[in-house]
């Protein structure tokens, strides 16, 4: 994981060398230092030297500007924590939906390959040398491809896997 991942996923201004303060749940300062590296947590190196500790980027962390005086983000307030949690949930939901869509497409392609059904249709108009993906692997998709190609064009089914494309 990188700092860019931390910034994108959690919406915090994490950057190597940035001064941060981490607080306990009772509001007392627990740790002050500079961000050194990141995994799915930020690793903060103590200002006093020596050790570094890992903290969740949104768990009661105050991020300071490069001057060390200006607060960029204070994740202690409930409103900020709620906004950051909503952003994180939205990012996770998007990833989950994309993974499900990929799995469904793979399953449909495997089924189509097993039954010998096309997964789509391509059409080429008369006088044109490029094939255009037009319809899904159904009768409506075939009809859409034929309408696109016109009277003198060509239509071909597309099977799962580019090497399996067959000209009709």
Helix-residue proportion:
25-40%
Summing up helix and strand content along with how strands pair, one would put the structural category as alpha+beta
- End-to-end distance: 48 Å
Oligomer: single chain
Uncertain ranges: 162-168
Largest pleated sheet: 6 strands, antiparallel
List SSEs in N-to-C order: HEEEEEEHEEHE
Query: What is the CATH fold-level name of the largest domain?
Result: SH3 type barrels
Entry keywords:
3 helices; 9 strands; 168 residues; 3-stranded antiparallel beta sheet; 2 domains; alpha+beta; disordered C terminus; 28% strand
Mind sketching the topology for me?
Elements: H1 3-10, E1 19-23, E2 29-38, E3 42-46, E4 52-55, E5 61-64, E6 71-74, H2 78-115, E7 120-124, E8 132-136, H3 139-149, E9 154-158
What would you note in describing this structure?
The strands form 2 sheets. Strands 4-3-2-1-5-6 form a 6-stranded antiparallel beta sheet, with no helix packed on it. A 3-stranded antiparallel beta sheet has the order 8-7-9. The chain is an alpha+beta fold and 168 residues long. The protein starts with a helix and ends in a 10-residue tail after the last strand. It folds into 2 domains: 80 residues, SH3 type barrels (Roll), CATH 2.30.30; 45 residues, no CATH class. It has 3 helices and 9 strands.
